[in-house]
From TrEMBL:
PROSITE patterns (alphabetical): ZF_TFIIB (PS51134)
Bias type Low complexity, positions: 14-31
Gene3D superfamilies for the chain: 1.10.472.170
One annotated GO biological process: transcription preinitiation complex assembly
Keyword field contains Transcription regulation: yes
Gene Ontology molecular function terms on file: TBP-class protein binding; translation initiation factor activity; zinc ion binding
Cellular component, GO annotation: transcription preinitiation complex
Region (Disordered) location: 1-33, 74-119
TFIIB-type domain: residues covered: 30-60
Protein name: Transcription initiation factor IIB 2
Classification via InterPro entries: Cyclin-like_sf, TFIIB, TFIIB_cyclin, Znf_TFIIB
Bias kind Polar residues: ranges: 87-102
Amino acid sequence: MSTTTIRSYDGDAATRTTEETTSTGTTENATQSCPECGGSLAQHEARGETACVDCGLVVSEDDIDHGPEWRAFDSAQRDQKSRVGAPTTNMMHDKGLSTNIGWQDKDANGNSLSSRQRQKMQRLRTWNERFRTQNSKERNLKQALAEIERMGSALGQPDDVRETASVIYRRALSADLLPGRSIEGVAT
């Protein structure tokens, strides 16, 4: 356990502060050396800065913390606070990146919708589904991927085999090899 001294200067010599930390709060950075004295550098995570161990020169400050901006104390909180969506997949015609209107007839507060609002939401869902496929190639791809999923599931194929089949179908569609052939015949 080594002790690291980090000296901070706020512009003039009168406001000099010195702080000593143990190696539990810092990590040694052996690949870099101080530009002033050639000493080794240490990163101080709490302050977000990299400083020389020997002379105290702050080499970089305000380092970017790539971790989440929230804290979680157990896995349930971590899962609840995570904002990571589903991964992209070739098994959907839009690779799973489009926005869907939920099937529940509830508002943002969890209250049930009125009859008029339910009709409006159903109409919006219908139009949302129509606009997800913008042209005939996307409609063809959507139908073929559904067939690949159905056949793969019926045959007990793993997901990676279905993904590979969908990539092959996408390549055939982009190369215009499919006109004149049935979707079911090519997809299976």
